[in-house]
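In the current project phase, the collection of sequences with tokenised folds has grown. A sample record is quoted in full directly below:
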Amino acid sequence: MGESAQVLGPLESLDDVALHHAVLAGTPGARGQFYLRHVAAVLRWSTRLGGRGVDPEGVTHEVFIVALEKICRFRPGRFEPWLFAITRRVLANHRRRARAREVWSRLTGVQQERMRPPADDPLDASLRNEQRSAVFQCLDALSVKHREVLVLCVMEGRTAVEVAAMLGVPQGTVYTRLHYAKDAFRQASERGGLLDLLAGAEAAAGSQSRAGRGTRRERS
């Protein structure tokens, strides 16, 4: 009786803790609401962190399959850091497969195209096609750790506190990685100005992030 009381009301208005209870209770539509609430973030991470040859949509689908299989083990709280951890693990597997496909592509001469980012991605809206291609080429040159902090801090406008929680590292480590990530990005860039373009995307992402946090506060 106590658990059912926690899942009353429109699913859209539930915070993550209450939605978790709703999913566990088998409330109709709860799994769909879980997916709709977080799919844009997971697809964005998959696109920006995946690298060459990784299919972001395939990664996203796999992340939610894993998440729903393991949701009974989730400790009540915010879903986003947990989903990011799953995304990192799924991406690692997809990168390994992508490297094998890349070897095959070199042998056969068949080239794979990069998947387009989500339609509402601030980076996609602020960069022209050739600029977007250059940015992703530079991101591909970064290590996974450096790419993660650059995407989360610069491209998504997240705070060091948020990123530290998502990566499971101290804030100081986030700042250090971000410093080296920006240096590596500059070195990988064949022309100047890309970090300025990313800053524009950061401003757009920051506005989107603040709006999202406001929505979460309204739910709570």
Summary: Residues 67 and 73 are 10 Å apart (CA to CA). The longest helix spans residues 79-108. The chain has two domains: 1-118, 121-220. Residues 1-8 have pLDDT under 50 and may be disordered.
